[in-house]
Design brief:
2 helices, OB fold (Dihydrolipoamide Acetyltransferase, E2P), 4% helix, 40% strand, mainly beta
Length: 237
């Protein structure tokens, strides 16, 4: 995935977006922040899954579960973060357990200074931002009245500024970055080795879910630090 950088921020309203619901309950709240907006937490437990690292942390005698894109983490280590999206009654099928509450974050850092800047490069976070994209073995039927990812990349100028519908599988997700959630999608098609579509949304997604998503297409979006997207979907629902 080529994003998961910059600043972390805000709460979003949960939706299954044509896929499965991510939690039994749909109530979300923003993480309580201190005056600086930066949390300092000590890791008490670390659980690893294919795409996420779950951290049971203690902060001011309060314990919470955090979920971040997969990273190396150690029990006893101190991590810093800002904000997050709370998922109540969240079920992790891979771990085979239910969490009363999990805060999904774009990443954590080992230094509070990295969170004081208005924009963060990928190296500011302990999670890997610029991982190599891998084409998955995915076979998804196109949405009715929709297009494929290959069609989008092969005729990108045609779709610029237009709202399109795509049915695809979620291959990576990161919450609350630049006041948006970010999702990577693949449907098994490709054009000139381009098979991964990045979308921003206020919705919460789960890796592995197949969803039907609609949004406006933008071209050549440059967020700095080398994060340039030739094609992406914005305001996806």
């Amino acid at each position: 995935m080529k994003l998961f950088l910059i600043s972390i921020g805000i709460v979003f309203v949960m939706s299954n977006c044509g896929g499965q619901e991510q939690a039994q309950g749909q109530t979300q709240t923003q993480v309580n922040v201190n005056s600086s907006g930066i949390h300092k937490a000590i890791a008490l437990e670390v659980l690893q899954t294919t795409s996420y690292t779950y951290l049971r942390v203690k902060e001011n005698n309060i314990e919470n579960w955090l979920a971040v894109p997969k990273m190396e983490a150690k029990v006893g280590a101190t991590y810093y973060y800002k904000n997050g999206v709370e998922m109540k009654d969240f079920q992790s099928k891979e771990l085979g357990r239910n969490f009363e509450s999990v805060f999904f974050l774009g990443g954590v850092t080992t230094s509070p200074d990295a969170l004081k800047k208005p924009a963060q490069s990928a190296s500011s976070y302990t999670s890997t931002a610029k991982s190599t994209l891998v084409k998955r073995e995915i076979d998804v039927e196109p949405a009715e009245d929709g297009i494929t990812i290959a069609e989008l990349f092969s005729n990108k100028e045609k779709y610029e500024g237009k709202t399109v519908k795509i049915r695809a599988q979620v291959t990576k997700f990161s919450a609350a970055i630049m006041n948006k959630n970010w999702v990577h999608l693949q449907d098994g098609t490709e054009h000139n080795k381009k098979f991964d579509l990045v979308a921003t949304s206020a919705n919460v997604f789960k890796v592995g879910d197949t969803i039907t998503i609609t949004g406006k297409i933008a071209l050549n979006k440059d967020f700095g630090y080398g994060y340039l997207y030739e094609v992406m979907m914005e305001e996806a629902e």
